[in-house]
Amino acid sequence: MQKVNVLFDLLNYLIFLCKLKFLEIIMKKLKLFTLMAFSSTMLLVSCGGGNSKKGGGTKRFTSMTGWKPNDQKGWFFSGKQQKQKGWPGMVYVEGGTFTMGLVKDDVMHDWNNTPRRMQVSSFFIGEAEITNADYRSYVTWLKFVFPPSDPSFKDIYNGALPDTLVWNNKLSRNDFAETYFRSPEYDYYPVVGVSWLQASNYCDWLTDRANEKALMDQGVMSKDFYTNDANNQGANSFNLDKFKSNDPEMDAYLNKQRLQQKSGIKTSNQRIAAANRNATSGIIEKFRLPTEVEWEFAALGLQKNREYNNYLEKLPEIEKLRGKKGGNRGMFLENFKYGRGDYSGVAGWKNDGSAITSDVKQYPSNDLGIYGMYGNVAEWTADVYRPIIDDEGNDFNYYRGNAPQRTVKNADGTYQKVDAVKYDTLADGRLVYKGLPGKFERETVEDQKNYRDGDFMSSLEAGYGRTEDSSAGKYDMYNSPKKRFFVDAKGRVKLEKDTRSRTSQISDEVRVVKGGSWLDTAYWLDPGQRRFKDEKKAYGWIGFRVAQDAKNSTKGRTKR
Hints:
The chain has 560 residues and is an alpha+beta fold. Among the domains are: 90-217 and 284-404 and 514-549, Alpha-Beta Complex (paralog of FGE (formylglycine-generating enzyme)), CATH 3.90.1580.10; 219-281, no CATH class. It contains 9 helices and 17 strands. The protein has helices at residues 2-46, 132-145, 156-160, 176-179, 196-217, 240-244, 256-262, 270-276, 292-300; strands spanning 90-93, 96-100, 116-120, 123-126, 345-346, 349-350, 378-384, 405-407, 423-425, 431-433, 442-444, 484-487, 493-496, 510-514, 531-534, 542-543, 547-549. The strands form 7 sheets. A 4-stranded mixed β-sheet has the order 15-14-7-16. Strands 1-4-17 form a 3-stranded antiparallel β-sheet, with helices on one face. A two-stranded antiparallel sheet has the order 2-3. Strand 12 and strand 13 (493-496) form a beta hairpin. The longest helix is centred in the first third of the chain and has 45 residues, at 2-46. It is globular and about 75 Å long.
């Protein structure tokens, strides 16, 4: 028994020695691996690989002159980087890639909205359409700053008013022509009866008024600006052109010290301060109409669903508008026409409850917090209409309608201001201003509306002395009616009828309209749908909302 125990102990000892040997081998291999990894790292460092740095953008500017940024002893000031904040009523839309157009059957058979891949930069868009109250503030300002009693301003106010006659119908009785725009009950309903030209003028006006408020809040501009009644009249009123150009008219109302602080300037040398002062510090980005691509991207609200990029799995958007629970279960939560004789639903069970338009925030928003992009009113976009979007020409921030302008200068180098107001003519014969007095004159450098659109001027036959009226004129695809106005002996503006035979309604004066309306059936509610209307004409079912450019988000990318 004792021998057995001794043998058992010996066996355990041998096993123990084996384990030690195994561990020793393991440790040697680990040491070898560690040494190899360390050697590799040292080799990379010796070759320069260890000098790599993380990305993430430039946190501070550095000057190639050798001066430290914003050194008060030097000449060069980089200024403060302004953190972009959204203006009240605007929603930030992070840019991205998406499938633009429809994926359902093309029932119209016009190939007008076939799917295509597009990239959109980040931008801001109005959370709702411009309301009657918003637009009334605009025309009221025009009436008192440019009074119609002044012969030089007599057409400014009248030409900005909505066409309330759009509500008239030969076989329908209503009082909306008298009440819709002016009555307080409709304050927060979308403004209609506004042409594309009038909507664009509103955007320019809003840019000036928003910056006026922002500069006053920042202390750059005196809040007593309007205590002097002269600053409420005509060309003396504030506009961004005068502020950005350091116009002498603004000197008395600007706090130069505060503007200097906003620009990050830390020197007591006024000459150096004036050379580096940035008049654009703290200004609000220009308001404009959204492009067609921006509008559709915002309507889809893709920020929470990146897999939407696969358009083969795309469902009709109208299916997302059905109520999922409660008393709204199964109901369509948007304002549109359900069928002939059904604008609001059966009595006692009103589906949308709105016979015409409704409050701009009546129905739930999309995933981005944007209201009314499916129904209520269709909306103007910035684009000139063409049947096919040329994504081969550009798939980044697509926009047709570019006509770059430059500011006109006088012989002495100063900017030329609008003195005598120029006008365009609306479809109803009213005159609409092209620029308000006091703003800078601008001239078009190049008109690119027709670029690669398939008409004669885009063809290889264009040039060499040939014109659209020559034998090569057969390439003129968009042979649309021409509208010419003249003033008769009594001073009335009249339309000269176009007697030539025309083959198309498409011209450079028709703009893309997106979204459905209270007057439309469900077919038009899909954001992929598109149609066009005359930019000079107003409609009772078309409104508009505004947009702004935005810098890309400084935050990390959103989760996929």
